[in-house]
Specification:
The chain folds into two domains: about 170 residues, no CATH class; about 250 residues. The chain has about 450 residues and is mainly alpha-helical. The protein is globular, with a radius of gyration of 25 Å. The longest helix is centred in the first third of the chain and has 21 residues. About 50% of the residues lie in helices and about 5% in strands. The protein contains 20 helices and six strands. Helix 9 runs antiparallel to helix 12 and helix 9 crosses helix 15.
Length: about 450
């Protein structure tokens, strides 16, 4: 279904016959080469990460509805108008985008019931997505100058009606090691439609996933599969986990070897998969994560992964195609909804309902970064360990040896983090930025 929606929003530019009457014109819809022209859009869209794709789907659906109401096509391919060579066309395209901005701002609902109205940047994101979709297919839309003035006005009106405090970002709180240990120590009880049994495949995998996320900052999209998608190389597989036992690297250790792991000497090794910061896995995939085995700590990622390996053995070539985290003994890949469901249940079993709403799976990543900071880890190394792609962090990541990597993870697991710590974090990724609107113009400039 998602693929059909995306094909619908990429079909326009491909249907370009008749737009070019020059000596160099050719047909893209007839002849034996037609499939190659048709494949261009599919390949372009395949290079966009799924999070952006989902946002683009929503923005394009709204844009198409708006254009239908206006009585015009959603694909704006008049290059002379966009470039200003056609003054009338330029004014037309500016007014269309501005009207869409006003229309969609009235349409968007606030993310939280606690918010009186949606923030202006939510509407601006819809404009940005429409422009990016056009840009990916060779269409550069009109300049932003008039939109900037509109953004400032909408933001000022929002402040007048709801106050400047309403523009402050609502960030999730960090799940630090103490809270992680509380979650993993939850007593057996009914959780939704499942009874909590830490020896059952589902909960063995959830415990390992939470410990790994808390000790390394892995994202949900790297550890579980979106409900609408099939398991693929963008998720951790069983082959992503290796073991360093008595100095030797083992890709497929036996149960006897895993049982004989020596605490504080042996290590679990996790090879990162594709991520939003490394969509081809060419950067971080070559630099494994080292986790010292310590069974005395219930939040120790290596110990939890060892339990998973022993409880759900997967050997040989099957490790290459089997999801690391599964929801049953049949090795069904874990889905996002399953993770969200049981994390919410475990949180509500340990904290109040109001407090539970302040956390999400991303809280593990925030907590990891916060605890590294609390442990005295320099900002650039935090960015490296959190696998956020900057030139400086890559240089550091590449030279971290196994002991140094494991030491920082160990130190992080000894810390306690709070919202004060989170406010002192460096920029790890766009979910972690804690910033206030200095002015509507600044917001607009960042978006462009």
């Amino acid at each position: 279904m998602a693929a059909e929606r995306r094909r619908d929003r990429t079909a326009g530019p491909a249907a370009g016959d008749g737009l070019d009457d020059s000596l160099y014109a050719f047909s893209t819809t007839t002849g034996p080469i037609t499939p190659f022209f048709a494949a261009i859009s599919d390949f372009i869209e395949a290079g966009v990460n799924e999070g952006t794709q989902n946002k683009d789907d929503l923005a394009w659906a709204r844009w198409r509805t708006f254009c239908n109401l206006v009585g015009t096509t959603p694909w704006r391919t008049d290059s002379d108008a966009h470039a200003g060579r056609n003054a009338v066309g330029f004014a037309r395209e500016c007014r269309l985008l501005c009207a869409y901005f006003v229309w969609v701002h009235q349409l968007i609902k606030p993310r939280s019931s606690a918010d009186a109205a949606a923030k202006p940047d939510s509407s601006l994101n819809m404009i940005t997505a429409v422009r990016c979709i056009h840009g990916r297919h060779g269409v550069t839309m009109v300049a932003w100058k008039q939109l900037g003035a509109l953004m400032r006005g909408i933001t000022e009106r929002h402040i007048q009606e709801h106050g400047s405090e309403s523009l402050l970002p609502n960030r999730k709180e960090p799940i630090d090691p103490p809270l992680l240990r509380r979650l993993l120590a939850t007593v057996p009880q009914q959780l939704g439609d499942q009874y909590l049994d830490w020896t059952a495949p589902l909960f063995v995998c959830l415990a390992a996933m939470f410990a790994l996320a808390g000790g390394t900052g892995f994202r949900k999209s790297e550890t579980a599969t979106p409900n609408s998608m099939e398991f693929d190389e963008r998720r951790l597989r069983r082959s992503s986990v290796l073991w360093k036992i008595d100095g030797a690297i083992l890709v497929d250790p036996s149960a006897e070897q895993l049982t004989a792991l020596v605490p504080l000497r042996d290590m679990g090794i996790v090879k990162p998969c594709c991520s939003k910061a490394d969509q081809t896995n060419r950067v971080f995939g070559a630099h494994p994560i080292y986790l010292r085995y310590d069974p005395s700590d219930p939040a120790n990622p290596a110990a939890r992964l060892r339990t998973l390996e022993l409880r759900l053995p997967c050997r040989g070539k099957a490790r290459l195609t089997t999801a690391l985290f599964v929801s049953d003994a049949a090795f069904t890949p874990m889905k996002h909804s399953t993770v969200d469901c049981y994390l919410a249940h475990l949180l509500r079993a340990n904290v109040s309902a109001a407090e539970a709403s302040r956390y999400s799976f991303h809280s593990f990543r925030i907590g990891f970064a916060c605890c590294l900071l609390a442990a005295g880890c320099p900002y650039d190394i935090i960015q490296a360990l959190a696998r956020w792609r900057t030139t400086q962090s890559l240089t550091i990541y590449a030279r971290l040896n196994p002991a140094a990597y494991a030491n920082w993870v160990d130190k992080a697991l000894l810390q306690k983090a709070d919202s004060t710590t989170a406010r002192r974090l460096p920029v790890i990724d766009d979910h972690d930025v804690v910033a206030v609107y200095a002015s509507a113009y600044d917001v607009f400039e960042r978006a462009t």
